[in-house]
Amino acid sequence: MATETPGRDESWYGAGEEVDRIRGAAFKWACLGATLFGISMVFVLLLYVAVDAIRPFSADAGWYLAVGLAAVVPTVALLAYYVRRDREAGWVGATATALPAFCLLVGSGVAILVIEVFPPHEWFAVVPALGAVVAVWAVHQRVRPDPVEFERFGVVALAALVAFVGVPGAVPSLEAALQSALLWLNWPTMMLYSFAGPIALATGILIARRHESRRAGAVATTLTFAAGVVSILLAPAVGVDDYLLVVVALSVAVPTALYAESVLRSGENVSGLALPVVAYVGIAVAAVVVETYGFTGPAAWLDWEFLTEPHSRFPQRAGIYPALVGSIMMMLVIVVSAFPVGVAAALYLEEYAPDNGATGRVVSIIEMNIGNLAGVPSVVYGLLGLALFIRYADMNTGSVVVGGLTVGLLILPIVIISAQEAIRAVPDSMRQASYGMGATRWQTVRNVVLPEAIPGILTGTILAFGRAIGETAPLLMIGAAAVVFNAPGAFTEQFSAMPRQIFAWSSEPSAEFRHGVLAAGVVTLLVVLLSMNAAAILIRNRYQRR
Amino acid sequence: MTEWGNLLLYRNHSRVFTRDRTIHYVMDGTKRPGARGRREFLVAAAGVGASAVAGCIGRSYEGARAGTDESDLTGNVTITGSSTVYPVTVAVAEEFQQRYAGVDVTVDSTGTGGGFKNHFCPGNSDVNGASRPITDGERENCASNGVEPVEFEVAGDALTVAVNEAADWVDCVTFDELAQIWGPDGAEQWSDVRDDWPDEPFELYGPASTSGTFDWFTENVVGEASSHRSDYEATEDDNIIVQGVEGSPYAMGYMGYAHFEENRDRLKGLEVAVEDRDNCTPPSLDNARSGDYPMARPLFVYPDAASVRENEQVAEFMRFYVENSATDLVKEIGYVPASEELREENLDKLRNILDGTTSTETRTATEGTNTTETNTTETTTP
Q: Can you tell me the ipTM of this complex?
């Protein structure tokens, strides 16, 4: 063109009228460098912390030989085979291997709750009471298929009232009655009925739907329940309290078996199931060999004692258990408080809020400020929690509820934003189709928008929870204790969370605390965090495949 | 049975968007009813039988988690306050917890002033640790909430001035020299203080102004409360002071003895003299205990008298604390244990609280029998 300047020519073309590729290549390599720099920094840090926590160089050569030959070499060889020959089967194998480990973590979390917060007799009282409410709902659905407006809601609310509240002073609730009436049952039996029972039922329903056969469902129910019974019978041999083994064993066995069954039934990539077998049998063989020949493993700071003991002034005896329980309980409060509020706010902003006129402008200002709130430093939320929950509402300083609500407020904007993104991603054509079929806005939201958006909402929310579990500053502000020796038994008790405990260790004079114990705490926190992120990825993948 | 199964299986048939698989379920579920009844009966019978067996075999846990300790004391003891007293309190709490497993002890490190202001005086904690005596303002603040702080001196600390190992030109400093270095408009270069010291600028590391250690140092060494130079690296964490001093040959810092002891091979602890440079004393627990070391300072805990009277577990914790304050437990973590006399006196004081004869005004008990007598007197007379 006539208006082109010579300078521009020079910037894009070399002297010989050829396209200059150097700039593009340089830019590409600069970007690659930035990526590698970031990743390697984090990786080096994690490696450093992991080496401190596990001390791999303190193990015998024999230990390495046994573990390497029995577990690592076969697993790696099999993985290499999958990578070269059959990637799909490799993915199946990796999932089947990771699933039991992940479920073990989740199951241990539930077991900790049973130990510390809901002992079996309370659990046993709550589950049938809930079951009674569900039963009332189901019966009502059958008896009156076409209820009048709010009839079903009223019936269910009444059932819930009878089950959990009763008439104060006169009639005890179903839950209270169960708690006092059934003392003759021992704890394992209670857990068998109230934990294994519902899980067996759910498994049966799932299998019945999957196989389109009620017989298969009944078999699955029986097998699951029998697995619960067997785990109780085996508990003395394993050395774990029987009522806890039911919880842990079923948490691991049921999802693993369901996954394996689905792979076997589909008949595709069945060879992938060899990986977990090789890996876990290898680990078991290695354990037996190490035990027989008496090799000493690495003197890791992160050991069983660390996970089950409270802080001690002797680094060798120090542990993280009460802080771990505190963190789990805090997460429960966060889930119960931030999730419904955040999703409801996002639904309103996306589905109901007007987007033009004066109110539309107010709404857009609100949305903008939610984005700003997501960037407010966490110390400020700590101050807010201190003022709101402790000074004004007069809750206990440093209690689990205050911690959970404060951190819940902190991640609320993130939950709202990610839920909004997920809701926005539902195609408008689906809403229009629903309206076209005569559905109301409420029916559209309930039956079209929410089911489509839930995977995205869950993924974003779990990532936000991952941030919540690592927050330290708000906990300092609300007075979560540096050291707690007994795990909190109720949500109103003072607690310590993992990051708070790690921070307390960082100011200990002894180097063993600052390098060994602290590193073990960091690795524990990271494992919990990464397993939460893994859950988010699992959920996303599961729903994307459909 | 069939109807119930249908209910559970097909409960989403009323949804607007039904997956077409549901129809298959309906077809399947309504076939061959006869054989199923028998089979389901068998299944149900097996389940009930198995659970009955488990009910007989599983262990019973009635009261399994209580009653393992020698006392059935329960309740909470919440401790806040100084980060210097915190290690002592944590050690005592750990021992206490082993004996009284039913009591929930929580220890937080909030700083002396922060603990009084935010936790103890509003009535949210039972005991506050302090590395300096409570001020009159704090006492009034507590009294307005009905909280009665009572002073217990439980341990001592040998505040240590440390320099880099390479600083071979200095072995001993006097209070006057320290005041020249750390006071407002303090010396810029080492040679400004003593002529034979190098012509190099100071690199100073010390506790932040919120710390009780800072208060004690300014009052007793610099000579005037809160008069401290501001151009130094102020931190809440003694480990940072250690790292800073280790990192530069011209650095100087002061910290609690426990942190110095732990890093003795990386730092050089200076001997200290009040006036006369011929009278230098190295920092050590023995010297602090005998009163020879001039920078020995007392550490306190302040229980709320009302809480001690009302809560048996708080009273028991304080009794346990006072008794253990004179043992090696305190020495092992780098602090000066209380003397036998001090322990007896503290026990008397605790008895008086429980009898209701102690008021907040009787707080001069630490005088006379105090192991670190000279310093307490300095502390209480500004």
A: 0.77
CB atoms A507 and B3 under 8 Å: no
Sheet holding B233-235, edge to edge: B233-235, B203-207, B251-255, B160-164, B267-269
Please check whether residue A120 touches B, CB under 8 A.
yes
| Domain spans in chain A, listed from the N-terminal domain onward | 74-301, 315-544
pLDDT in tens, B189-235: 898 888 888 898 989 999 888 788 888 888 888 887 778 888 888 88
Query: Which H/E stretch holds residue A507?
Result: none
pLDDT attached to residue B358: 53
Interface mutation vs chain A, best among B61, B68, B96, B119, most A CBs within 10 Å? B61
pLDDT averaged over every residue in chain B: 78
DSSP state of A270: G
Q: Which of B50, B61, B108 has its CB closest to that of A187?
A: B61
Domain A315-544 has CATH 1.10.3720.10: yes
pLDDT over threshold 90, residue B63:
no
**pLDDT score, position B77:** 92
Please, are residues A98 and A538 in contact by the beta-carbon 8 Å criterion? no
Interface size A-B, in CB pairs within 8 Å, comes to 176
Cβ-based contacts of B39 with chain A (< 8 Å): 215, 218
- Judge whether A486 is closer than 8 Å to chain B, CB to CB: yes
3-state DSSP call for residue B251?
Answer: strand
Q: Residue length, chain B?
A: 382
* CA pair distance A503, A518, nearest whole angstrom: 8
Contacts B3 to A, Cβ<8 Å: 142
Residue pair A174/A129 in contact by the 8 Å Cβ criterion: yes
For the cut 60, the answer to whether the pLDDT of residue B381 exceeds it is no
Predicted pLDDT at A173 = 74
Residue A33 tokens, joined:
């460098």
CA B8 to chain A, closest CA, distance in angstroms equals 7
> Could you give all domains of chain B from N- to C-terminal order, each with its CATH number?
2-56 (no CATH), 75-156+300-380 (3.40.190.10), 160-282 (3.40.190.10)
What tens digit of pLDDT does each residue of B360-369 get?
Answer: 444 444 443 4
Comparing A254 with B13, which gets the higher pLDDT?
A254
Question: Cβ contact (<8 Å) for A186 and B29?
Answer: no
Contact A242 B58 (CB under 8 A): yes
Cα–Cα distance list, B198 to A46, B167, B202 (Å): 42, 10, 10
Residues of chain A with pLDDT under 50: 1
For position A11, what pLDDT does the model report? 53
Looking at chain A from residue 318 to 377, which residues have their Cβ under 8 Å from any Cβ of chain B?
Answer: none
Is B237 in contact with A507 (Cβ distance < 8 A)?
Answer: yes
Q: Which residue has 């708690």 as its token pair?
A: A179
State whether A482 and B21 contact (CB < 8 Å). no
CB-CB neighbors (< 8 A) of A120 in chain B: 61
B5 has pLDDT over 60: no
Per the CB < 8 A criterion, the answer to whether B91 and A313 are in contact is yes
Look at residues A336, A379, A392 and name the one whose alpha carbon lies nearest to residue A475.
A379
The pLDDT value recorded for residue A406 is 95
Give contacts of A 7-66 with B, CB under 8 A. none
